[in-house]
Structures are given as structure tokens and as C-alpha cells.
Amino acid sequence: MEMEYHNPVLLNETVDGLDIKPNGVYVDVTFGGGGHSKEILKRLGEHGKLFAFDQDADALKNKIDDPRFTLIHENFRYIKRFLRFHGVKEVDGILADFGVSSHQFDVAERGFSTRFAANLDMRMNQKNDLSAFHVVNEYDEEQIKQVLLQYGELRAAPAMARLIVDYRKNEVIKTSDQLKTILKKFLSPKHENKILAQIYQAIRIEVNQEIEALKEFLSQTPEILKPNGRLSLISYHSLEDRLVKRFIRNGLFEGEPERDVFGRFEVPLKKVGKLIIPSAEEIKINNRARSAKLRIAEKI
Question: Quick one: 203 and 273 in the same domain?
Fold first, then answer.
């Protein structure tokens, strides 16, 4: 059941943001439990089309039996390539709900959640070679430090990296419990959950190359969207949201766009409305919605 697999965040707000045309072509690049996709299909007419992407094999079990629907088992960083494969060059809207699904968090052996003792894995695509085990055991001290610093925004990253490297000289680090034991001195009872979440987030982002994938995906969207086509994007942490915000504003991930002699610059997108966050009521029902930020943009 969808509710068990993943409870879609900001469901109506995100789909409303697409401003759906009944016979349009849409893409849900983070299919998961299919919650957003089902809502899009409800609003499409018989000639509408919906393509969905998900790299996690577990999500394929949720495939929707509908002639208007096509599920593509790939990372959304390859959106343009696989839409072309299906004969699609332009679409009317693209929806993305970034981050980890409830299902991935709740299956202990996937290693995404701080709640469970598990082997170090954290792969969204379980065919990938790179796992949390490789990051923790094979990256050198500087690489581990950079992962924790950049993706976890942990000030203690240098000391954490040193402890990890020192520990593994004598013993392979196989489990989340070992990692917690190694970094115990940084996990004060008051802040343990928050710091653990930052550590896990950092390793997970590295394992799945999430920042690179997000940049590749966003860079392709202006070419794929039709004029007035919509982007509806949910982010869960500041690293993602910063990239989304900058790309919508400037068409770039860093720096400023080139201006003409009058100080004007051209960008492919314009923002639609204000930042949307979940209501207190939604957060009460679904605690994982608490950090969600929805930004909507339209191709100029």
C-alpha cells in the first residue's frame, strides 16, 4: 500500500504547482510509492501522459497499471536521455520530491535510518558499487573530512575523520553500531539524534552522489520544459534547497549571471509564488514533512 511505502509530502500543493493540462505530458522523477504520480493521473485526461523515474528496485513494485503511465527504472540525472528514448523531447511539467522515501528509512537493512542497527549500505540503487561501507573504510582521512564537512555541515568533521581512520587500522567498520561507538564522544545525549542525522546525511549524499545528480537534473530541465512548463520541487535540507533556489533565480548554481550594459540578465526560469512549507497539521500527521520546502518555477 502507498501509505505504508511513502506518505507523499505537500501532495496537493506540489501537483497544483504543475498547473496540469488534461492532455499534457508530465514527469515525476521521484516515483517512490507513487503518491504524487497517482494524483497527477487523476487530473490528466485520456490523452495525457505521465513518465516516472526511480532508481530503487523496491519502487518498481508500486508501478501503476494505467495506459497513460510509464515507469523508468533509472536515476533522474538521466532524464533527457530516457525521455528521448521514449520519443519525448518536451514536457509540460516536472515534479521532484528529493531525499529518502519513508520506505527506505523504514527498512532496517538498507541502512538509511539512525534508529536501526544495520550494515553500512545507504545505496538508493542497490546495483551501485559505492556504499557507506566503502566511504567509511576506503576513503582517506581528507576525503572523509570533506564529506562530513560539506554534506553534513559538521564542525567536528576533522576530528571525526581522524577517529574513523584510526579505528579501521585495527578493525573493519561494518555496521552502524560500530560507527556510533567510534563517534560516541561527539554524541552528547542532548544532541545525539541531530548529529547522527547529519553524519548519516553526509555519507548518504556521498554514496548516492545526490548533489551531482541534482545539478545534472536541474541543468536539463529548461531544455526539456515547453514554454510556460512548470517545475515543482520539494527539498529537505539546505544543500538541496540552496541549489534549487539559485538555479530558479539565476540559472546557475554559484556566482552571478552575466549582465548586459543595462544590468539586465536572462534566465530560463521564473519563480511562481512563494516558498511553500507543510502546515502544522500535515507535520503532525507526517513528521517527516517537517523540513520540506516546495519551490515552483515556470519556463519563460
Answer: no
Q: Which of 156, 184, 208 is the last residue of a domain?
A: 208
At 153, which CATH number?
1.10.150.170
Does 96 fall in a domain?
yes
Q: What is the pLDDT of residues 131-151, one digit of tens each?
A: 999 999 999 999 999 999 999
User: Last residue of some domain: 183, 208, 233?
Assistant: 208
Q: By three-state DSSP, how is residue 248 classified?
A: helix
CA distances from 176 to 8, 47, 113, 147, 257 (A): 28, 48, 9, 17, 43
Q: Average pLDDT, stretch 191-202?
A: 94
Mapped onto helix, strand or coil, the DSSP state of residue 247 is helix
- Taking the model in full, what pTM does it have? 0.93
The pLDDT score that the predictor gives to residue 114 is 67
Give the pLDDT of residue 140: 98
Name residue 137's amino acid.
N
Rounded distance between C-alpha atoms, residue 239 and residue 248, angstroms: 15
Question: Who's near 10: CB < 8 A, 6+ residues apart?
Answer: 234, 276, 278, 282, 289, 292, 294
Residues 222 and 290 in one domain: yes
- Reduced to 3 DSSP states, what percent helix, strand and coil does the chain have, rounded to the nearest 5? 45, 15, 40
Q: Where are the alpha helices (DSSP H) in 20-156?
A: 35-43, 79-85, 102-106, 132-138, 141-152
Question: Which pLDDT score, from 0 to 100, does residue 110 have?
Answer: 80
Domain encompassing residue 147: 131-208
Tell me the backbone φ, ψ of residue 266, rounded to 5 degrees: -105, 135
Judgement on whether residues 149 and 74 belong to the same structural domain of the protein: no
